[in-house]
Design brief:
heterodimer, A: about 190 residues, mainly beta, Jelly Rolls, 2 domains, 5-stranded mixed sheet, 4-stranded antiparallel sheet, about 5% helix, elongated, disordered N terminus
Protein backbone atom coordinates (compact mmCIF):
# COMPACT_ATOMS: atom_id res chain seq x y z
CA UNK A 1 0.00 0.00 0.00
CA UNK A 2 2.84 2.37 0.82
CA UNK A 3 4.40 1.57 -2.50
CA UNK A 4 1.11 2.30 -4.23
CA UNK A 5 0.84 5.64 -2.48
CA UNK A 6 4.43 6.49 -3.41
CA UNK A 7 3.83 5.63 -7.04
CA UNK A 8 0.67 7.73 -7.04
CA UNK A 9 2.41 10.75 -5.60
CA UNK A 10 5.52 10.32 -7.71
CA UNK A 11 3.46 10.13 -10.84
CA UNK A 12 1.73 13.42 -10.13
CA UNK A 13 4.40 15.65 -8.72
CA UNK A 14 5.44 18.13 -11.41
CA UNK A 15 8.96 17.43 -12.57
CA UNK A 16 10.56 20.51 -14.07
CA UNK A 17 14.04 20.07 -15.35
CA UNK A 18 16.69 22.72 -15.11
CA UNK A 19 16.65 25.02 -18.12
CA UNK A 20 13.23 23.93 -19.36
CA UNK A 21 11.55 27.27 -18.66
CA UNK A 22 12.61 30.81 -19.35
CA UNK A 23 12.54 33.18 -16.42
CA UNK A 24 9.28 35.03 -16.00
CA UNK A 25 8.88 38.65 -15.04
CA UNK A 26 11.01 39.72 -12.13
CA UNK A 27 13.13 36.54 -12.38
CA UNK A 28 10.12 34.36 -11.62
CA UNK A 29 10.98 30.64 -11.71
CA UNK A 30 9.46 27.34 -10.60
CA UNK A 31 10.09 26.30 -6.99
CA UNK A 32 13.59 25.01 -6.51
CA UNK A 33 14.98 26.77 -9.56
CA UNK A 34 16.50 30.22 -9.93
CA UNK A 35 16.92 32.59 -12.81
CA UNK A 36 20.29 32.39 -14.43
CA UNK A 37 21.60 35.78 -15.50
CA UNK A 38 23.59 34.25 -18.32
CA UNK A 39 20.67 33.17 -20.48
CA UNK A 40 17.60 34.10 -18.39
CA UNK A 41 16.46 30.50 -18.01
CA UNK A 42 15.30 28.83 -14.81
CA UNK A 43 18.06 26.52 -13.67
CA UNK A 44 19.27 24.63 -10.66
CA UNK A 45 20.82 27.06 -8.14
CA UNK A 46 24.15 25.32 -8.55
CA UNK A 47 24.12 26.01 -12.28
CA UNK A 48 22.97 29.63 -12.05
CA UNK A 49 25.31 32.32 -13.31
CA UNK A 50 25.12 36.00 -12.47
CA UNK A 51 24.04 38.55 -15.06
CA UNK A 52 26.85 40.11 -17.00
CA UNK A 53 26.92 42.35 -20.04
CA UNK A 54 28.80 41.10 -23.07
CA UNK A 55 31.62 43.64 -23.48
CA UNK A 56 31.24 43.37 -27.25
CA UNK A 57 27.84 45.07 -27.16
CA UNK A 58 28.78 47.89 -24.82
CA UNK A 59 29.52 51.41 -26.04
CA UNK A 60 30.42 52.87 -22.69
CA UNK A 61 30.68 55.61 -21.83
CA UNK A 62 27.33 56.49 -23.41
CA UNK A 63 25.40 57.95 -20.51
CA UNK A 64 24.74 61.41 -21.94
CA UNK A 65 24.04 63.16 -25.23
CA UNK A 66 27.62 64.27 -25.48
CA UNK A 67 28.79 60.69 -25.04
CA UNK A 68 26.21 59.19 -27.39
CA UNK A 69 27.28 56.36 -29.64
CA UNK A 70 27.00 57.49 -33.26
CA UNK A 71 24.96 55.33 -35.58
CA UNK A 72 25.95 55.03 -39.23
CA UNK A 73 24.62 57.55 -41.75
CA UNK A 74 21.03 56.83 -42.67
CA UNK A 75 19.14 57.70 -45.83
CA UNK A 76 15.68 59.19 -46.08
CA UNK A 77 14.37 55.63 -46.31
CA UNK A 78 17.08 53.60 -44.72
CA UNK A 79 17.82 50.00 -44.14
CA UNK A 80 16.96 48.78 -40.69
CA UNK A 81 19.82 49.30 -38.32
CA UNK A 82 20.07 46.46 -35.80
CA UNK A 83 22.25 46.49 -32.73
CA UNK A 84 22.55 44.70 -29.43
CA UNK A 85 23.09 46.49 -26.17
CA UNK A 86 23.15 46.00 -22.46
CA UNK A 87 22.29 48.06 -19.44
CA UNK A 88 24.50 46.92 -16.63
CA UNK A 89 23.41 47.12 -13.00
CA UNK A 90 23.01 50.71 -12.05
CA UNK A 91 23.44 52.03 -15.60
CA UNK A 92 20.71 54.62 -16.07
CA UNK A 93 20.93 55.21 -19.84
CA UNK A 94 22.55 54.21 -23.08
CA UNK A 95 22.67 56.98 -25.64
CA UNK A 96 22.89 56.59 -29.39
CA UNK A 97 22.61 59.39 -31.94
CA UNK A 98 21.82 59.71 -35.61
CA UNK A 99 21.30 62.50 -38.10
CA UNK A 100 18.59 63.00 -40.68
CA UNK A 101 19.49 63.83 -44.29
CA UNK A 102 18.90 67.35 -45.59
CA UNK A 103 16.97 66.39 -48.72
CA UNK A 104 14.03 64.27 -47.54
CA UNK A 105 10.55 65.31 -48.54
CA UNK A 106 9.48 63.88 -45.22
CA UNK A 107 11.22 61.66 -42.75
CA UNK A 108 10.28 59.70 -39.66
CA UNK A 109 11.97 57.28 -37.35
CA UNK A 110 10.69 53.83 -36.50
CA UNK A 111 12.50 52.12 -33.65
CA UNK A 112 11.90 49.11 -31.47
CA UNK A 113 13.59 47.47 -28.55
CA UNK A 114 13.22 43.86 -27.43
CA UNK A 115 14.44 42.59 -24.08
CA UNK A 116 13.93 39.64 -21.73
CA UNK A 117 11.05 40.03 -19.31
CA UNK A 118 13.18 38.38 -16.65
CA UNK A 119 15.01 41.53 -15.70
CA UNK A 120 14.21 45.21 -15.44
CA UNK A 121 11.97 46.39 -18.30
CA UNK A 122 13.45 48.92 -20.68
CA UNK A 123 12.12 51.88 -22.57
CA UNK A 124 13.21 54.29 -25.30
CA UNK A 125 13.27 58.02 -25.50
CA UNK A 126 13.77 60.18 -28.58
CA UNK A 127 15.69 63.36 -27.97
CA UNK A 128 16.35 66.41 -30.07
CA UNK A 129 19.98 66.73 -29.21
CA UNK A 130 20.31 70.17 -30.70
CA UNK A 131 17.54 71.47 -28.49
CA UNK A 132 18.45 69.08 -25.68
CA UNK A 133 14.82 68.09 -25.38
CA UNK A 134 12.99 64.78 -25.18
CA UNK A 135 10.40 64.69 -27.94
CA UNK A 136 8.94 61.17 -27.82
CA UNK A 137 8.85 58.00 -25.78
CA UNK A 138 8.14 54.37 -26.55
CA UNK A 139 4.72 52.84 -26.77
CA UNK A 140 3.06 49.45 -27.25
CA UNK A 141 4.06 47.84 -30.50
CA UNK A 142 1.30 47.46 -33.08
CA UNK A 143 3.18 45.03 -35.29
CA UNK A 144 6.09 42.68 -35.15
CA UNK A 145 6.71 39.39 -33.42
CA UNK A 146 8.62 38.97 -30.23
CA UNK A 147 10.17 35.79 -28.88
CA UNK A 148 8.64 34.01 -25.92
CA UNK A 149 10.18 35.39 -22.78
CA UNK A 150 10.86 38.75 -24.40
CA UNK A 151 8.99 42.04 -24.35
CA UNK A 152 9.07 44.69 -27.02
CA UNK A 153 8.47 48.42 -27.09
CA UNK A 154 8.17 50.62 -30.18
CA UNK A 155 8.63 54.27 -31.07
CA UNK A 156 7.55 56.19 -34.16
CA UNK A 157 7.97 59.88 -34.67
CA UNK A 158 8.20 62.36 -37.53
CA UNK A 159 11.54 64.12 -37.80
CA UNK A 160 12.99 67.17 -39.45
CA UNK A 161 15.74 67.29 -42.02
CA UNK A 162 19.33 67.99 -41.06
CA UNK A 163 18.98 67.47 -37.36
CA UNK A 164 20.70 65.25 -34.85
CA UNK A 165 18.55 63.05 -32.70
CA UNK A 166 19.30 60.79 -29.82
CA UNK A 167 17.77 57.41 -29.00
CA UNK A 168 18.15 56.66 -25.34
CA UNK A 169 17.57 53.27 -23.75
CA UNK A 170 16.50 53.62 -20.14
CA UNK A 171 15.30 51.34 -17.34
CA UNK A 172 11.53 51.54 -17.13
CA UNK A 173 9.93 49.29 -14.57
CA UNK A 174 10.40 47.25 -11.44
CA UNK A 175 13.86 45.86 -10.72
CA UNK A 176 13.15 42.94 -8.32
CA UNK A 177 13.81 45.25 -5.42
CA UNK A 178 17.17 46.18 -6.82
CA UNK A 179 18.37 42.66 -7.58
CA UNK A 180 17.64 42.74 -11.32
CA UNK A 181 18.34 46.37 -12.24
CA UNK A 182 19.95 45.36 -15.54
CA UNK A 183 18.99 43.93 -18.88
CA UNK A 184 20.22 43.17 -22.35
CA UNK A 185 18.39 44.20 -25.49
CA UNK A 186 18.21 44.29 -29.25
CA UNK A 187 17.36 47.61 -30.83
CA UNK A 188 16.24 48.32 -34.38
CA UNK A 189 16.01 51.73 -36.03
CA UNK A 190 14.95 52.82 -39.48
CA UNK A 191 14.23 56.11 -41.17
CA UNK A 192 11.09 56.02 -43.24
CA UNK A 193 8.83 58.22 -45.31
CA UNK A 194 5.85 58.88 -43.03
CA UNK B 1 -15.17 -31.87 24.34
CA UNK B 2 -16.37 -35.45 24.46
CA UNK B 3 -19.83 -36.67 25.38
CA UNK B 4 -20.56 -40.38 25.80
CA UNK B 5 -23.79 -42.20 25.02
CA UNK B 6 -24.80 -45.75 25.63
CA UNK B 7 -27.64 -47.90 24.36
CA UNK B 8 -28.32 -51.43 25.60
CA UNK B 9 -29.12 -53.89 22.80
CA UNK B 10 -30.77 -57.22 23.85
CA UNK B 11 -29.06 -60.49 22.80
CA UNK B 12 -31.98 -61.45 20.59
CA UNK B 13 -31.37 -58.51 18.44
CA UNK B 14 -27.69 -59.31 18.26
CA UNK B 15 -28.34 -62.99 17.42
CA UNK B 16 -30.66 -62.11 14.56
CA UNK B 17 -28.55 -59.71 12.76
CA UNK B 18 -28.68 -60.31 9.00
CA UNK B 19 -24.91 -60.71 8.82
CA UNK B 20 -25.01 -63.84 10.94
CA UNK B 21 -27.33 -66.54 9.52
CA UNK B 22 -28.83 -69.06 12.02
CA UNK B 23 -26.61 -72.02 12.76
CA UNK B 24 -28.03 -75.45 11.59
CA UNK B 25 -28.83 -77.88 14.47
CA UNK B 26 -26.39 -80.53 13.19
CA UNK B 27 -23.53 -78.10 13.31
CA UNK B 28 -24.76 -76.78 16.60
CA UNK B 29 -24.42 -80.20 18.23
CA UNK B 30 -20.91 -80.65 17.03
CA UNK B 31 -18.49 -79.22 19.45
CA UNK B 32 -16.88 -76.30 17.78
CA UNK B 33 -13.17 -76.14 17.60
CA UNK B 34 -11.52 -73.88 20.05
CA UNK B 35 -11.61 -70.33 18.79
CA UNK B 36 -8.34 -68.60 18.22
CA UNK B 37 -7.28 -66.23 20.92
CA UNK B 38 -8.64 -62.75 20.28
CA UNK B 39 -7.78 -59.40 21.60
CA UNK B 40 -9.95 -58.95 24.62
CA UNK B 41 -10.20 -55.25 24.20
CA UNK B 42 -11.32 -55.51 20.57
CA UNK B 43 -13.84 -58.11 21.39
CA UNK B 44 -15.31 -56.07 24.14
CA UNK B 45 -15.25 -52.72 22.32
CA UNK B 46 -15.55 -53.16 18.56
CA UNK B 47 -14.99 -49.77 17.01
CA UNK B 48 -17.14 -48.38 14.19
CA UNK B 49 -16.04 -45.80 11.65
CA UNK B 50 -15.97 -42.26 13.02
CA UNK B 51 -18.74 -39.97 11.90
CA UNK B 52 -17.49 -36.45 11.22
CA UNK B 53 -19.98 -33.61 10.95
CA UNK B 54 -18.51 -30.29 9.71
CA UNK B 55 -20.58 -27.16 10.21
CA UNK B 56 -19.33 -23.90 8.64
CA UNK B 57 -19.77 -20.75 10.71
CA UNK B 58 -21.96 -17.96 9.33
CA UNK B 59 -21.50 -14.23 9.81
CA UNK B 60 -24.31 -12.27 11.31
CA UNK B 61 -26.00 -9.65 9.16
CA UNK B 62 -24.80 -6.87 11.46
CA UNK B 63 -21.25 -8.09 11.08
CA UNK B 64 -21.58 -8.10 7.30
CA UNK B 65 -23.07 -4.60 7.31
CA UNK B 66 -20.34 -3.26 9.57
CA UNK B 67 -17.55 -4.77 7.50
CA UNK B 68 -19.15 -3.64 4.26
CA UNK B 69 -19.57 -0.12 5.59
CA UNK B 70 -15.95 0.14 6.65
CA UNK B 71 -14.71 -1.31 3.37
CA UNK B 72 -17.04 1.02 1.46
CA UNK B 73 -15.70 4.01 3.36
CA UNK B 74 -12.19 2.89 2.44
CA UNK B 75 -13.14 2.65 -1.20
CA UNK B 76 -14.74 6.09 -1.00
CA UNK B 77 -11.57 7.60 0.44
CA UNK B 78 -9.62 5.85 -2.29
CA UNK B 79 -11.94 7.29 -4.93
CA UNK B 80 -11.40 10.80 -3.58
CA UNK B 81 -7.68 10.12 -3.63
CA UNK B 82 -7.98 8.98 -7.24
CA UNK B 83 -9.78 12.20 -8.13
CA UNK B 84 -6.97 14.29 -6.69
CA UNK B 85 -4.43 11.99 -8.29
CA UNK B 86 -5.94 12.55 -11.73
CA UNK B 87 -6.23 16.28 -11.09
CA UNK B 88 -2.59 16.43 -10.09
CA UNK B 89 -1.54 14.32 -13.05
CA UNK B 90 -3.43 16.58 -15.44
CA UNK B 91 -1.78 19.72 -14.07
CA UNK B 92 1.63 18.04 -14.06
CA UNK B 93 1.13 16.92 -17.64
CA UNK B 94 0.35 20.47 -18.71
CA UNK B 95 3.51 21.76 -17.06
CA UNK B 96 5.65 19.02 -18.58
CA UNK B 97 4.21 19.69 -22.02
CA UNK B 98 4.84 23.43 -21.76
CA UNK B 99 8.39 22.86 -20.57
CA UNK B 100 9.35 21.49 -23.97
CA UNK B 101 8.08 24.72 -25.57
CA UNK B 102 10.56 26.78 -23.56
CA UNK B 103 8.09 29.40 -22.41
CA UNK B 104 8.62 31.82 -19.55
CA UNK B 105 7.41 30.92 -16.09
CA UNK B 106 4.29 32.89 -15.23
CA UNK B 107 2.04 33.31 -12.19
CA UNK B 108 -0.54 31.16 -14.03
CA UNK B 109 1.99 28.34 -14.36
CA UNK B 110 2.92 28.80 -10.72
CA UNK B 111 -0.75 28.44 -9.80
CA UNK B 112 -0.94 25.25 -11.88
CA UNK B 113 2.20 23.97 -10.18
CA UNK B 114 0.71 24.68 -6.77
CA UNK B 115 -2.50 22.95 -7.83
CA UNK B 116 -0.58 19.87 -8.96
CA UNK B 117 1.45 19.82 -5.76
CA UNK B 118 -1.54 20.30 -3.48
CA UNK B 119 -3.59 17.69 -5.30
CA UNK B 120 -0.67 15.29 -5.12
CA UNK B 121 -0.49 15.67 -1.36
CA UNK B 122 -4.26 15.30 -1.02
CA UNK B 123 -4.19 12.19 -3.20
CA UNK B 124 -1.53 10.69 -0.97
CA UNK B 125 -3.48 11.50 2.18
CA UNK B 126 -6.73 10.08 0.86
CA UNK B 127 -5.01 7.00 -0.53
CA UNK B 128 -3.41 6.49 2.87
CA UNK B 129 -6.68 6.88 4.75
CA UNK B 130 -8.53 4.69 2.27
CA UNK B 131 -5.86 2.02 2.44
CA UNK B 132 -5.83 2.07 6.21
CA UNK B 133 -9.61 1.81 6.40
CA UNK B 134 -9.70 -1.08 3.93
CA UNK B 135 -6.92 -2.76 5.87
CA UNK B 136 -8.98 -2.26 9.00
CA UNK B 137 -11.95 -3.90 7.30
CA UNK B 138 -9.81 -6.87 6.32
CA UNK B 139 -8.44 -7.22 9.85
CA UNK B 140 -11.95 -6.86 11.21
CA UNK B 141 -13.16 -9.60 8.88
CA UNK B 142 -10.42 -11.89 10.07
CA UNK B 143 -10.94 -11.13 13.75
CA UNK B 144 -14.71 -11.49 13.62
CA UNK B 145 -14.70 -14.55 11.39
CA UNK B 146 -17.13 -17.15 12.87
CA UNK B 147 -15.49 -20.44 13.78
CA UNK B 148 -16.37 -23.64 11.94
CA UNK B 149 -17.68 -26.52 14.09
CA UNK B 150 -16.61 -30.12 13.62
CA UNK B 151 -18.40 -32.90 15.48
CA UNK B 152 -16.82 -36.35 15.53
CA UNK B 153 -18.84 -39.33 16.71
CA UNK B 154 -16.89 -42.43 17.74
CA UNK B 155 -19.42 -45.32 17.75
CA UNK B 156 -18.49 -48.50 19.63
CA UNK B 157 -20.17 -51.67 20.69
CA UNK B 158 -19.53 -53.44 23.97
CA UNK B 159 -20.67 -57.01 24.33
CA UNK B 160 -22.42 -57.72 27.59
CA UNK B 161 -24.26 -60.65 29.02
CA UNK B 162 -27.58 -60.96 27.23
CA UNK B 163 -26.86 -58.29 24.62
CA UNK B 164 -24.59 -55.40 23.87
CA UNK B 165 -24.19 -51.80 24.60
CA UNK B 166 -23.88 -49.55 21.61
CA UNK B 167 -22.27 -46.30 22.54
CA UNK B 168 -20.75 -43.25 21.08
CA UNK B 169 -18.58 -40.38 22.00
CA UNK B 170 -18.85 -36.89 20.59
CA UNK B 171 -16.08 -34.52 20.31
CA UNK B 172 -16.49 -31.01 19.01
Amino acid sequence: MRALIFVGIAACTPTITSGAYDCGTQELCPPGLVCSGADNTCVDPLAAEPFACDPAVLHEPDDSSTQAFALPTLGCVSNTYIDSGCLAAGDVSNWSMFSTPNNCTAVAVTASIAFPIAFQPLGMQLWDITANQMIATDDECTKGVVAAGDAQRCLEHTLENSKTYGIVVVPNGPDCGGTCNFNRYNITLQLTNP
Amino acid sequence: MRLPWLVFVPSVALAQTPDEPPVPPSEAATPAPAPPPVDREVAQHPQGKDIVIHTEGERSQNNLIALGSVAGAGVLFGAVGLYYNLDSRSASGDLTQLASAHVPWTPQLQAKYDQAHDSSIKAGVFYGIGGAVILGAIVGAIVTAPKDETTVIHPHVTATAGGAVVGGTWSF
